[in-house]
Design goal:
The protein is an all-alpha fold. It has eight helices and no strands. The termini are far apart.
Amino acid sequence: MIQQWNEQWLIFLNSLTDTQQLQTIFWIIADLPIFFLPIFLISMWVYYVIKNNNEQKKWLLLLFYSTILALTINLIIQNLVHFDRPESVLQWVWNLILDHIPDASFPSDHTAVSIAFATALFFTGYRKIAYIFFPIACLMNISRIISWVHWPFDVIVGTFIGILSGYIICVVLK
């Protein structure tokens, strides 16, 4: 049931990329934004060290811990449950946009980390930045489906893990 639903949504979303220009855009969006997270964290950490602002460094640590918790939960699940990536399962892929290592697909690490980061931004009071980042994270995660890297269910579960991780770190353990 879930597999059939996954395939239907995957095919529908991928059918939206019928031109080379759209495929290039989704290829960029599917992978590039995740690299801005460590760049953001490191640059802000250096900035606050120079400014000697320990209070601001605390919220950066909450962002970092949220993403680490999300990755840890993902790794545990990936060691217990294994789903192949769409391009490995569907041999008739006609519009493969992004080549990827054929490792575990479920749940999506990109989704869990990006949503944990955005959720942590929201709960630490940086809501304006969170409102900017949430749509970027969502577009990136939908692009992961469109690019045949993840099943829709991988992204849904990754979103849940990301929200849960941000909430646990920033609300429960804060």
